[in-house]
Design brief:
Structural class: mainly alpha
CATH topology: Mitochondrial carrier fold
Distance between the termini: 26 Å
Number of strands: 0
CATH superfamily: Mitochondrial carrier domain
Oligomer: single chain
Shape: globular
CATH architecture: Alpha/alpha barrel
Strand content: under 5%
Number of helices: 10
Low-confidence stretches: 1-7
Order of helices and strands: HHHHHHHHHH
Radius of gyration: 19 Å
Number of domains: 1
Mean pLDDT: 86
Largest sheet: none
């Protein structure tokens, strides 16, 4: 019987694989992310930019893609390995993958939060260029302004990863078991696409909350304050439907992105390991 232990990755393959995967998907699918962000804006889709300038904010996204992906996967694989060593009989347990994914998200969001704030404000037309965004946020809010919404991002990413990574790992394990051989990069990509789409759809309300917090204010200029406050305000003022704003583009983006992301990750790590 094949065992995914055959595919366990070291720190440096995971570091490189995460960097390549993160950059590939963020750059390739950026327009879908822009459309999703504008749909979630309190000002409405067309006031936030509509279909114009769908690459606004790409520079900010690209700056955070490689380090964010690298930090996530190196932490994820290291945590998974350490937990597996401590409890070898549980290494295929969803709880192990959940714990490893949570560790990875906590680390990666230290990089992703500042770039996400800048990116989303550029996507919705608040700022026109990366230098303008950086200078304005620093002048108005200080360094803390770049981490506005960090906990809302964690509140979105950890539930997302709790669904995505155990599902991805579980699908790979079952596929590997069925064919009595490790999954290929293509098979890993298919598993990642399905897992990402399911997780994206379910966690859309948390993504809406994160977007509103990072954009800062509602359509009347009243600031959002905290994850629960924002969730409550959107629901009470705009209804349940608004909490699922952008669910279509988000699910499509992350399904396609999951295919690219996990496919590139599997291919890069396996290639790197073969030449080490």
């Amino acid at each position: 019987m094949a065992d995914n232990a055959d595919n366990e990755r070291g720190f440096f393959p995971a570091l490189l694989g995460g960097a390549v995967a993160g950059t590939s998907v963020d750059v390739a699918l950026f327009p879908l992310d822009t459309i999703k962000t504008r749909l979630q804006s309190a000002h409405g889709f067309f006031k936030a930019g509509g279909f114009r300038g769908v690459y606004s904010g790409l520079s900010a996204a690209a700056a955070g893609s490689a380090p964010g992906g690298a930090l996530f996967f190196s932490t994820y694989e290291t945590s998974k390995s350490l937990i597996g060593m401590a409890a070898p009989n549980q290494k295929h347990s969803p709880l192990v993958h959940m714990a490893a994914a949570a560790s990875g998200e906590m680390a990666a969001c230290l990089v992703r939060t500042p770039t996400e704030i800048v990116k989303q404000r550029m996507q919705t037309g608040v700022y026109k260029s990366l230098p303008e965004a950086l200078n304005a946020i620093r002048a108005a809010e200080g360094v803390a302004g770049f981490y506005r919404g960090y906990w809302s991002m964690i509140a979105r990413e950890i539930p997302f990863s709790f669904i995505q990574f155990p599902l991805w790992e579980g699908l790979k394990y079952q596929w590997s078991k069925q064919q009595n051989a490790p999954v290929s990069s293509l098979q890993g990509a298919v598993c990642g696409s399905f897992a990402g789409g399911v997780a994206a759809c379910i966690t859309t309300p948390l993504d809406v909350v994160k977007t509103r917090l990072m954009l800062g204010k509602d359509a009347k200029g009243v600031p959002y304050n905290g994850t629960l406050n924002t969730l409550s305000r959107v629901y009470s003022d705009e209804g349940l439907r608004r909490l699922f704003s952008g669910v279509g583009p988000r699910t499509m983006w992350i399904s396609i992105g999951g295919f690219v992301f996990f496919g590139m990750y599997e291919k890069t790590t396996s290639t790197f390991k073969s030449i080490m």
